[in-house]
């Protein structure tokens, strides 16, 4: 008899959840028990995060493969992604599948843009192809702004606020249907503007040089009018 089969060894039926309510294990029954605990409110926020990390680790290969397949499809067939890619090329940049990376992320974000390396897509955070399209478009607006307006990413919060306003407004992530069905924002008027403002403030607040939420709000408000009206390289807000 091996150690794993010795009397008293833990099995999926008798393993107990830890103090957070999370139950380790990759089998279907364990996953069902964890999901049940989440739905009934028996798992703490720490336990939910443990569940998500375990799920993301388990599904890493499949998530990245799906992300890469959808990325390649969007680069070929999405009008928005193709237009942004061509606009970036006209400014001397190059963003395609060789520098748009699908990876598992450990922090809860959709992706990011780095002027030196390209775009990171957090494959484990992508809900579907539409979500991926919005995320790539968002980061491509940042890339366009970097080339067109020489954004100072490290020190100038007004620059950061402006590109965040433009990226949230032009990418499609703040369109009415996504706010209504995905995020529970049910207002029928000024919804797009409020979404853009909210997301820009959150992004600016996360930067090291930002003091607090009041500081982030003030910076966003200072650049709001000019940056929200600026739809380049588009003629208008399409998504």
TrEMBL record:
Its main location: mitochondrion. Residues 1-17 have a biased composition (Polar residues). Its EC number is 3.4.24.-. InterPro entries: Peptidase_M76_ATP23. GO terms for biological process: mitochondrial protein processing; mitochondrial proton-transporting ATP synthase complex assembly. It is an enzyme of class 3 (hydrolase). The keyword Mitochondrion applies. It is a peripheral membrane protein. Pfam families: Peptidase_M76. Residues 1-23 are annotated as: Disordered. GO terms for cellular component: mitochondrial inner membrane. PANTHER family: MITOCHONDRIAL INNER MEMBRANE PROTEASE, MITOCHONDRIAL INNER MEMBRANE PROTEASE ATP23 HOMOLOG. Has a dual role in the assembly of mitochondrial ATPase. Acts as a protease that removes N-terminal residues of mitochondrial ATPase CF(0) subunit 6 at the intermembrane space side. Also involved in the correct assembly of the membrane-embedded ATPase CF(0) particle, probably mediating association of subunit 6 with the subunit 9 ring. This is Mitochondrial inner membrane protease ATP23. The lineage of its organism: Eukaryota, Fungi, Dikarya, Ascomycota, Pezizomycotina.
């Amino acid at each position: 008899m091996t150690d794993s089969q010795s009397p008293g060894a833990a099995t999926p039926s008798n393993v107990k959840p830890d103090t957070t309510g999370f139950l380790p294990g990759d089998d279907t029954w364990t996953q069902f028990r964890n999901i049940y605990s989440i739905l009934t409110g028996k798992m703490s926020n720490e336990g939910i995060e443990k569940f998500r990390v375990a799920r993301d680790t388990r599904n890493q290969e499949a998530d990245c493969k799906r992300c890469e397949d959808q990325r390649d499809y969007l680069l070929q067939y999405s009008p928005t992604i193709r237009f942004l890619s061509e606009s970036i090329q006209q400014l001397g940049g190059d963003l395609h599948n060789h520098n748009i990376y699908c990876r598992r992320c450990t922090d809860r974000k959709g992706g990011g843009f780095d002027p030196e390396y390209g775009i990171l897509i957090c494959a484990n955070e992508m809900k579907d192809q539409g979500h991926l399209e919005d995320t790539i478009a968002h980061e491509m607006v940042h890339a366009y702004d970097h080339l067109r307006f020489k954004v100072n990413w490290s020190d100038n919060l007004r620059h950061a606020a402006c590109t965040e306003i433009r990226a949230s407004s032009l990418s499609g992530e703040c369109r009415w249907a996504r706010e209504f069905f995905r995020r529970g924002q049910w207002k029928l008027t000024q919804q797009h503007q409020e979404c853009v403002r909210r997301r820009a403030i959150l992004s600016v607040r996360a930067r090291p040089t930002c003091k607090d939420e009041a500081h982030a709000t003030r910076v966003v408000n200072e650049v709001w009018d000019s940056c929200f009206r600026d739809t380049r390289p588009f003629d208008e807000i399409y998504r």
